[in-house]
Amino acid sequence: MPSPRRSGRAAVAPAATTMPTDAVVLRGLVRRFGERVVLDDLTLAVPAGASLVVFGPNGAGKSTLLRVLATLLRPHRGVVELLGEALPDRAWAVRSRVGLLTHEPLLYRDLSARENLRFHARLHGVGDDRIEELLEAVKLRVRANDPVHTYSRGMVQRAAVCRAVLHDPEILLLDEPLSNLDPAAIELVEPLIGRASGRTRIVTSHDPAGGLADGDLALGLRRGKQVLLRPAAEVSVDEIGELYR
Ligand SMILES: Nc1ncnc2c1ncn2[C@@H]1O[C@H](COP(=O)(O)OP(=O)(O)OP(=O)(O)O)[C@@H](O)[C@H]1O
Which parts of the sequence belong to the ABC transporter domain (predicted)? Predict the structure, then answer.
């Protein structure tokens, strides 16, 4: 669960009156690259604490959707709201409440995991105890002072998971988060980025069975269009497979 650090915010704005039921809302989202429409009229809502798993073939728009939600790309049309704040105008108000884990680990390769985490911790006003807690959780302490470029891919991914959750974000944006992780490492990161974390999650996946088991809602994209949006428990593995044919 996100830790009680959030209680400081609640003292300023009581959660009961300001926390929207839906953590993520899209209404008619359009995003283009040049002439190409990459996200085409997406409309959905993700309740706070729920997980949306996004499926679709290469180039369908999954990563672009995550980048819009991470405030890295501006929407070209439609409404995008995170935690009740509309993007792009209120992006500054939500950035610190969102964690992003992508194929690009967003770590300095010549710094150690501990140095990388200290750098990000300072940006977010997070203390060293949180860094040590996370390094311990992903069993990286023994290598935490080695430069990231000496790590295996799984070790890099574990360090990237620490970076993504360092500031205890309410929303997690996860682009195939388990890639490069062995079964033991998957168990280690589950409490941090899995459903058990209690965070609102948008997760991309190419694994129909694993992805459906990981989500409350399933979204299927094909060439930027939303061709499936239903409770994950009601979607079959074959339906997800159809997206790729
Ligand atoms: N910076 C960019 N400039 C131009 N086109 C881009 C850019 N980034 C992505 N695209 C295009 O947007 C479309 C969607 O790409 P995106 O990376 O979102 O797909 P994806 O579903 O995440 O694919 P994958 O499964 O391969 O990761 C593709 O046609 C891609 O070429």
Answer: 24-240
Cβ of residue 179 lying under 6 Å from some atom of ligand 1: no
pLDDT tens digits, residue range 62-81? Answer: 999 999 999 999 999 999 99
The boundaries of the domain holding residue 128 are 104-168
Name the residue with the closest Cα to ligand 1, atom 30: 59
> Does residue 67 lie within any of the structural domains?
no
Our count of domains for the chain comes to: 1
Residue 38 counted as domain residue: no
The continuous run of DSSP H or E covering 45 comes out as strand 36-47
Asked, for residue 1, whether it belongs to a domain, the answer is no
ipTM over the 0.85 cut-off: yes
Q: What is each CA distance from 93 to 71, 89, 90, 98, in whole angstroms?
A: 11, 9, 5, 10
**pTM score:** 0.90
Q: 46 in a domain, yes or no?
A: no
